[in-house]
Design goal:
single chain; alpha+beta; SH3 type barrels; 5-stranded antiparallel β-sheet; 11% helix; 27% strand; globular
Length: 107
C-alpha cells in the first residue's frame, strides 16, 4: 500500500462525484489553465485537476510554475486546498496555501 505524508484526507480514498469533491472544500476547485497564487508569492498555472491516482484513488492537482524553469508539480488536492500553517508561517498574507488569482485586479 502506498502511503502519503500528512494531509491524509479519508474522503479522498474513494471515487466521489465532482460536486461532492467541490463541497468538501467549500470553495472553487482549480480548473485547467487558471492561475493560482501560492502564499509564498509565486504564481502557478493549473495543468489538470482533479487527477486521480491509479493505485490509491486519491485526488491530486497538477500545476506548472510561472517562473524559473517552469517546472511541473503534483500535489495532493487536500494539501493544495489547505489553509496556511499559521504556526509555521505566521507572516503569511493569505488564508489558503493556494488561492485563485482574480483576473480583474491581478490578485
Amino acid at each position: 500500500m502506498i502511503e502519503s505524508r500528512g494531509y491524509n484526507d479519508a474522503s479522498e480514498d474513494r471515487n466521489i462525484s465532482g460536486e461532492e469533491l467541490k463541497s468538501q472544500y467549500a470553495r472553487e476547485l482549480p480548473s485547467k489553465n487558471e492561475i493560482w497564487h501560492h502564499f509564498k508569492g509565486k504564481d502557478y498555472k493549473i495543468i489538470a485537476c482533479p487527477v486521480t491516482h491509479t493505485e490509491t484513488r486519491k485526488y491530486y492537482c497538477v500545476y506548472q510554475a510561472l517562473y524559473g524553469d517552469y517546472g511541473t508539480f503534483c500535489r495532493p488536492l487536500s494539501m493544495f486546498m489547505s489553509e496556511v500553517d499559521w504556526d509555521k508561517y505566521p507572516q503569511a498574507e493569505q488564508k489558503y496555501r493556494f488561492e485563485k488569482k482574480d483576473e480583474t485586479d491581478g490578485k
